[in-house]
């Protein structure tokens, strides 16, 4: 399998930092989304709202509609819907961050799929972020050390 070129190491460090930030934001968003789903689709049957008739932050019940869908009864800013939309769009950013680190590191495709799962499996993005950061940093240090060692070995002259 081809290895990243030494010249791409600054780009890899930048991609790693971007991946780490995107991973944490995506993980937090996914946890909020899971909490929202529990509130809405369990017997609690409520959504979170900001403003409106309930005050600064409040829970409004959801009721079944004519075709079985759940209809919101709250007014104001629907934070439950906002969490859903923000996580969905930020997952696209997270996938870009995964693709960038994956392509720069020249990893096999299965590793990209594993990275992508971090945005859909709760808590996985936090574990993946830690593992990927440790692996990439160790790889870069090892390759730079090997390159420095090979440069310090003088070229041997021809045999006499």
UniProtKB/TrEMBL annotation:
Transmembrane segments: 16-34, 41-60, 80-102, 109-128
Bilayer topology annotation: Multi-pass membrane protein
Key words of the record: Cell membrane, Membrane, Transmembrane, Transmembrane helix
Presence of the UniProt keyword Transmembrane helix in the record: yes
Stored Pfam families: DUF3817
Record domain DUF3817: where: 16-134
Subcellular location per the Swiss-Prot or TrEMBL entry: Cell membrane
InterPro entries membership: DUF3817_TM
Protein known as: DUF3817 domain-containing protein
UniProt source species: Microbacterium pullorum
Lineage per the UniProt record: Bacteria, Bacillati, Actinomycetota, Actinomycetes, Micrococcales
